[in-house]
Specification:
By secondary structure, the protein is an alpha+beta fold. The protein has a single domain (8-134), classed as Aspartate Aminotransferase, domain 1 (Alpha-Beta Complex). The protein contains 5 helices and 6 strands, in the order H-H-E-E-E-E-H-H-E-E-H. Strands 1-2-3-4-6-5 form a 6-stranded antiparallel β-sheet. Strand 5 (103-105) and strand 6 (108-111) form a beta hairpin. The radius of gyration is 16 Å and the shape is globular. The two termini are 30 Å apart.
Length: 139
């Protein structure tokens, strides 16, 4: 019986990919003007805290994202607002009361360039997305 081992090259490639993902997000944020940059950096920290340790950062669809068994959440800056993309319309319904003061549309939450979403709300949305992704991954 032959036992296959994961090659060290494959493991380091995955690690390099995660590092380049963080670097890509760093580069994206460096191009964002203030005050939106500081707002997105706060969002990034909130998401990182709420997401499992194995979640990785990447640029997806041209904007920063966290990935865990597929896309987890995205966030971005635009001219007149920032957006958080949980990419699941059912979450808008689940968190409707807390989101009523924000503009929402098809899995997108818009908020001011100088004020991130509340930390507790971001944490609950990220945890809900983690649960949804785990269910999808199981089949």
């Amino acid at each position: 019986m032959t036992v296959r081992k994961t090659s060290p090259k494959k493991a380091s490639t995955k690690q390099a990919s995660a590092e380049s993902g963080r670097a890509g997000v760093d580069a994206y944020l460096a191009r964002v003007p203030e005050p939106a940059r500081s707002t997105l950096e706060k969002m990034r920290a909130m998401i990182r805290t709420a997401a499992p340790k194995e979640a990785t950062e990447a640029i997806s669809y041209g904007i920063p994202s966290f990935q865990l068994k597929g896309g987890l959440v995205w966030y971005a800056a635009f001219k007149n607002h920032c957006s958080f993309f949980p990419m699941d319309h059912s979450l808008e319904e689940e968190f409707a009361e807390e989101l009523k003061k924000y503009k929402t549309s098809k899995g997108t939450i818009q908020f001011p360039v100088d004020k991130p979403l509340p930390k507790a709300l971001v944490a609950r949305i990220v945890k809900a997305r983690v649960a949804l992704n785990k269910v999808k991954a199981q089949g």
